[in-house]
Amino acid sequence: MANSRYEYVRNFEQPDNLLPSTWLVVRVDGKGFTKFTTKHEFKKPNDIRALDLMNRAAKVVMENMDEIAISYGQSDEFSFVFSKDAKAYGRRASKLMTLLVSQFTSAYVFYWSEFFPDTKLQFPPAFDSRVVMYPSDRIMRDYLCWRQVDCHINNMYNTCFWTLVDKGGITPKEAEKRLSGTFKKDKHELLYGFDMNYNNELEIFKKGSVLVRDKVFVDVVDRQNVVTKREKTVVKIKHCDIIKDAFWKEHPEILGEEETRSERNE
Amino acid sequence: MANSRYEYVRNFEQPDNLLPSTWLVVRVDGKGFTKFTTKHEFKKPNDIRALDLMNRAAKVVMENMDEIAISYGQSDEFSFVFSKDAKAYGRRASKLMTLLVSQFTSAYVFYWSEFFPDTKLQFPPAFDSRVVMYPSDRIMRDYLCWRQVDCHINNMYNTCFWTLVDKGGITPKEAEKRLSGTFKKDKHELLYGFDMNYNNELEIFKKGSVLVRDKVFVDVVDRQNVVTKREKTVVKIKHCDIIKDAFWKEHPEILGEEETRSERNE
Amino acid sequence: MANSRYEYVRNFEQPDNLLPSTWLVVRVDGKGFTKFTTKHEFKKPNDIRALDLMNRAAKVVMENMDEIAISYGQSDEFSFVFSKDAKAYGRRASKLMTLLVSQFTSAYVFYWSEFFPDTKLQFPPAFDSRVVMYPSDRIMRDYLCWRQVDCHINNMYNTCFWTLVDKGGITPKEAEKRLSGTFKKDKHELLYGFDMNYNNELEIFKKGSVLVRDKVFVDVVDRQNVVTKREKTVVKIKHCDIIKDAFWKEHPEILGEEETRSERNE
Amino acid sequence: MANSRYEYVRNFEQPDNLLPSTWLVVRVDGKGFTKFTTKHEFKKPNDIRALDLMNRAAKVVMENMDEIAISYGQSDEFSFVFSKDAKAYGRRASKLMTLLVSQFTSAYVFYWSEFFPDTKLQFPPAFDSRVVMYPSDRIMRDYLCWRQVDCHINNMYNTCFWTLVDKGGITPKEAEKRLSGTFKKDKHELLYGFDMNYNNELEIFKKGSVLVRDKVFVDVVDRQNVVTKREKTVVKIKHCDIIKDAFWKEHPEILGEEETRSERNE
Fold it and tell me: Which residues does the UniProt record annotate as the domain tRNAHis guanylyltransferase catalytic (chains A, B, C, D) (predicted)?
């Protein structure tokens, strides 16, 4: 083949397969979203349309990569947790990271007009992604705790900040100063002063979004018009606590049973 | 901070900075494009609208990442060559690969309707990407040769194949068999039999697309309506040979001057 | 400093820190030991002096690196298992691998004459090493099982082989043919034919060597000649089964207790 | 095979092949040599026996690994430069680093008594090693410049320091203070004050040791006692400048001719 003379350049590609039997977390992050949200007039502190669009894009990703056990999203970021035994693309880091971020971005732009029917997309947004290995269930769960606590802290802060600016009529700079050094209790009280109860805020704002797989029964109609039920796996979006054990007991399929040696070898 | 308890999970992120002073090539590849092109009825063997859209997306990438010295695209793939001294994102492999593929995908979906005004996008397409280091100018150039020769070989084959099917009226299977074992000369003759001259095919089909930066002078109008010329760097799309030396002599800025030690340290 | 002009070359060093919370196994292997053992007339199938020297060298390594939880050696190889939480040298792969293999080799040559008083070392022997991460206790244990089963299989084969050659008076080639396709039972019977019982072979040959840490009480004499007992950790060499659970129950300190999150963060 | 049940653990080994067409430098460094040199009463600032022993060990390494183009040593460190096209062990980083440091250490202990006939080795010394890729000739040369300049700076400082302590009769602490902030010129003058001329110091102290390969003719005697000359490659030890171009012009075989594409593919 005439091309073989140059094909030696392929030898410069280096393998990047991730360690077997570890949880793989791919996190997608909005690139320059401060500018993007301003340009598209996102509501502050949270724009429900934007969060729903993020969830829609994440759903596409989960439907395309069936080894993702659970996903978690908040603000302009989304984390996808591949099961410990995931085999997709030979666990090559670059394949997993790039395909996933590409699918996510593609769906985000594709479904934009469905969630922002009155706002024209001004320029193509971008996301980056990374992949991290977590060797044990506990550490993988701690990763998700980290993101959900981050969601909580940021949302509480931002809710206070924009309340001070929008209802309190002070400048962003003054709001920042006002909030500096305050604790959770102080923030709750501050909101009460504006007749707001933080606990009544939307769960999607306070907890973020959790995507899990669920089994449902769908009607299948055959040629003779006979209807039968068939089990189907679908992606469900929840806004619940994933820090406490309760969630994990309700979803035992995520962690799976502890593998035994014999299973691994059959 | 309440979050610190979980923050230890960040220690599992591993650095992936690429070697300094090497050319970095990020190649973007269409994922499952056989299905995608069928679904969207791309013209065979080449759909000029699809190639123009690829070029448009690549242009967005080059405008966003100014350390890309040259890009080369053909079919559903695009290669971006970062200069040896590129410093973007600390040369972190994951950042470069994922941001780039995300920007490319985003622009592809964003500009779709401009290039396919009569074809609705049916589902969000995806691309993967990888990054490879090339230590010398010669090897980086050989990489580009590899891709351009690949373009040439595939295009010649596909042109014959679809001519046999479309004009010759034989089945794809028969066409494949007919072409098996043929040489360049045979393929030229085959096309002559259909009154076609391969040399008259479009350059974009035969050579692919080369994106380089060019300096142009644009008119700048100030408040007093005084017009002045200002130099501006723009991305130009060419369909030329990049295998022979001529191209590189015309574009000395791509390889740059051989760095000297003193320069490197200032 | 006059040297700063060249110091940029340090930027080409790339980090290679291993994943936290995984078992690290460094295995040392003899390089070209077929030639080495022939040249130094090692007894076949096992030379107890050589195995004792390997153990002596491994002991030096364990005394120098206190995060090694257990080591296992057989033939011309030795595996060192660093605890999941080992922090030595920031878990840099190159530091761990190279220092360990250097210490091992150094001790091997240093103590040679103690174990081979009548055999002059002819040339300096060499070992290579590698490091592998194992994410769970079970998989790390399976690694050790792999090596101990390997010891067993090889030793049984070699015992038969050299019995056939030494006592049976057949050529190595014939012995190889004679053993081809035989099972464990056949090998036991073969040895019986030479009045040998495989079960009576030395444990160090059949099981290899297991190095663990043990606490002992030593007498400490002060200036007034008062003797007090003090606890001291020493390295013990055993030749026991490490496949079954019994060993691990006797040595709970190797696996340690399952870490809890709070511990990890204090 | 009974062992196959555990053999899955091999899947956890990760490839670490280094980039083709780059210079590979493996540097060996003494571990805890301050203690080692004190314990073995090395002469200060330089012990010629110790440097000769380092060179002897390095020679063994070069004789065993014929793709090493040049080595450079000073103090308790030695750098080995593998040619750009070296293929040994598939360019696996761990194999190269560990075998090399093991061979070096082994030879160091093996030859100790030859260079220190009156000093018994008290305990087995250890070295670590690392491997770094350098993409161009210039950068690889700058690496060697870095080490030779380092040798020069340290040796000048140490020569002054030990002169002040040994001949000047001041304490190490005072000597350190006395030298703080001094320039090259000051140090030359300081030595003149003790009737010493730095330029007359041994070249091995000022320049370190450069090991290159040289072709010599050796007499070969056959059975009929006929003597013929045969070319043989030997390792030569020099103490010359490797910063200026002169050295590289005298040794064109180190850099080799610029490879051309056609060569690379044949």
Answer: 6-135
Q: Are residues B56 and B115 in contact, defined by beta-carbon separation less than 8 angstroms?
A: yes
The helix or strand, by DSSP H or E, that contains position A111, with its residue range, turns out to be none
Chain D: residue nearest C112 by CA?
D110
- Judged by DSSP in three states, A143 sits in helix
Residue type (1 letter), B92: R
State the Cα–Cα distance between residues C137 and A196, nearest whole angstrom.
50
- DSSP designation for D1: -
Binned at pLDDT 50, 70 and 90, residue C128 comes out as very high
Q: Which residues contact D34 (CB under 8 A, 6 or more apart)?
A: none
Contacts (Cβ under 8 Å, ≥6 apart) of A102? B31, B101, B102, B104, B105, B126, B127, B128, B129
Q: Are strands B227-238 and B126-134 parallel, antiparallel or unpaired?
A: unpaired
Q: Which amino acid is at B110?
A: F
Band the pLDDT of D256: cuts 50, 70, 90. Answer: confident
Residues of C contacting chain B (CB within 8 angstroms) = 4-5, 8, 11-12, 14-15, 17, 19-21, 261, 264-265
Answer whether residue C59 shows pLDDT above 70. yes
Identify which of D243, D213, D202, D207 has the alpha carbon closest to the alpha carbon of residue D80. D213
Element (H, E) at A126: strand A126-134
3-state secondary structure of B166: helix
* Predicted confidence (pLDDT) per residue in A41-51, tens digit: 999 999 999 99
Which is it for strands D23-31 and C127-134: parallel, antiparallel or unpaired? Answer: unpaired
| C-beta of residue B210 within 8 angstroms of C-beta of residue B239 | yes
The CA distance from D205 to the nearest CA of chain B, in Å, is: 27
Residue recorded with tokens 């330029």: D199
DSSP D85: T
Write down the mean pLDDT value for chain B.
94
Q: What is the pLDDT of residues B133-152, one digit of tens each?
A: 999 999 999 999 999 999 99
Q: How far is CA A45 from CA A39, A50, A154, A201, D130, in A?
A: 15, 11, 10, 12, 50
Backbone phi and psi for residue D260, each to the nearest 5 degrees, phi listed first: -110, 160
B256 confidence band (pLDDT: 50, 70, 90): confident
pLDDT value at position B87?
97
Name which of B16, B83, B139, B245 to mutate to probe chain D: the one with the most chain D Cβ atoms within 10 A of its Cβ: B139
Residue A64, H or E segment: helix A48-64
- Residue C76 is labelled as binding a ligand: yes
Length of chain B, please? 266
Contact assessment for residue B148 and residue B207, using Cβ atoms and an 8 Å cutoff: yes
Three-class DSSP category at B82: strand
Q: What is the pLDDT of residue C256?
A: 87
Domains of chain A and any CATH numbers:
15-207 (3.30.70.3000)
Nearest to B75 by CA among B167, B199, B187, B206: B206
Find the closest chain D residue to B22 by CA distance.
D135
Mean pLDDT across A21-36:
98
Rounded to whole angstroms, the Cα distance separating A83 from A62 reads 12
Instruction: Find chain A residues with C-beta within 8 A of D21's C-beta.
Output: 12
| Chains contacting chain A through 3 or more C-beta pairs under 8 A | B, C, D
Are the CB atoms for C247 and C238 separated by under 8 Å?
no
Distances (CA, A) of B49 to B37, B44, B61, B236: 12, 12, 19, 18
Residue keyed to tokens 């142009």? B216
Question: What integer pLDDT is reported at residue B264 of this predicted model?
Answer: 44
Give the model confidence (pLDDT) of C139-155 as tens digits. Answer: 999 999 999 999 999 99
What local confidence, expressed as pLDDT, does residue B2 receive?
53
Tell me which of A160-164, A255-259, B170-174 is least confident: A255-259
| Per-residue confidence (pLDDT) for residue B98, from 0 to 100 | 98
User: Looking at the predicted structure, is the pLDDT value of residue C4 above 90?
Assistant: no
Whether residues A20 and D11 touch (CB distance < 8 A) is answered with: yes
Question: How high is the ipTM of this complex?
Answer: 0.94
